[in-house]
Amino acid sequence: MIIAERKPFDEIKQMIKDYPKVLIVGCGTCVAVCLAGGEKEVGILAAELRMALELEGKKIEIGETTVERQCDREFLEAIASQVEQYDAVISMACGVGVQFLAEMYPEKPVFPAVNTTFLGANEDIGFYTERCSACSTCYLALTGGICPVTMCSKGLLNGPCGGPVNGMCEVDRTRPCAWCQIYERLKQQGRLDLLKGVVPAREFKTKPAQFIHPAYKKKFERPQ
Amino acid sequence: MAFTPKIEALICTYCTYTAADMAGAARMQYPATVRIVKYLCTGRIDILHILKAFEAGADAVMVSGCEVGDCHFLEGNLRAQERVEYTKHLLDEIGIGGERLEMFHIGASDAPQWAEAVRQMTERVQALGPNPLTVKRRSEVQVEEKS
Q1: Domain count along chain A
Q2: Min distance A25 CA to chain B CA atoms (Å)
Q3: Which of A41, A76, B41, B56 lies deepest, with the highest CB count within 10 Å?
Q4: What pLDDT is stored for residue B72 in this prediction?
């Protein structure tokens, strides 16, 4: 899932200082699970802003709402009447949600309340670790289920650099070297021969990605 | 004259509430400054519950659960402790002040400790003064009345 962390309070307060009516929109999916932008976090931010601004002597009206997903138009359309009543909107969704919300309501200033951080796993409540870089070319079949693009500090595709010492990464000595882990995993599975192949250089994205499911090509694909 | 603070006490039913109940039954004397909200476990206490108490005008909030290692739900009191620490930071950012919030661990048989905790918190809040929001609201009402 997408992991995000809330921006510092002062940064958020600064963004909305000129608007008397602000709507905070939460997202009930990824950012709710990682405790950054769900319904509860909307409530906390709203309470913080109300109290802090009242202490500063500023009159501000703060609305709260949370949609199931901010990356789906149908959920964002449902809050049109609420958005209309406010001068600005704070989105607590990931960067996708913020952009989609801003796109749907272009007349309203939309401010992000979280920093979208990575694609990660939910290790425990409040503890998340990165696993995927969404690079569009998955190498996990060749690397024993450990992603070299994400887990190797240098994103190397053909084995380790010369730096690891006792299985630890040279960039951060407290972290294990991903390629040492890949070697151990493949050795355990008896698949070390996979390391003899050469992986060609990865294609870096030069434009925003787009994906159309094969079953929907007729509907969405533009004629060339 | 020192003001009489309004302290919201969010406490666990198994340990601290039993201690508070015992303090009452034993007629122990402590300041009448606390309003108790009973929870099944302090692990249920949310950051938002604490913030809402301050927003409603509480001068302080005390969270009190079982002693460390004694939680009926194993680690509810430890989770509450972490949330309280984080909420103190939020209160500092807001301008209310993190020292208006404190976590206590009071066992079911520790009635004197409950009475002492309330005394301590009351003295602390009397030194700090009322919730800054209450002060602000009162001053605004006075300005309106004058005009």
Answers
A1: 2
A2: 17
A3: A41
A4: 93
